[in-house]
Amino acid sequence: MNREGYRDPTAEKAIHNADKMPKYIQNIFDKLNLAAGKSGVEVLVIRDKETGRKYRR
Fold first, then answer.
1. What's the rounded Cα separation, in Å, for the pair 57 and 48?
2. I need a labelling partner for 54 at 20 to 30 A (CA). Which of 11, 15, 18, 27 fits?
3. Is 53 strand, coil or helix?
4. Within its chain, how far is the Cα of 14 from the centroid?
5. pTM for this one?
6. pLDDT tens track for 12-44
7. 3-class DSSP state for residue 51?
8. Distance between CA 34 and CA 41 in Å, rounded?
9. How far is it, in rounded angstroms, from Cα 1 to Cα 12?
10. Rounded Cα–Cα distance for residues 21 and 11 (Å)
11. How far apart are CA 40 and CA 17, in angstroms?
């Protein structure tokens, strides 16, 4: 919603895409948790070395 109370689909889509976890990060989470699950632990955070961005599950 913008200041006047109307929906702003462009801004909503941009925010959604910025918050969305990239597919390659999802794949890494899945593979790491598959291996870690055998030891009874789980991976909750991954940090991308190039961007410095942290992804949480």
1. 14
2. 11
3. coil
4. 14
5. 0.65
6. 898 888 888 899 999 999 999 999 999 999 999
7. coil
8. 10
9. 8
10. 18
11. 32
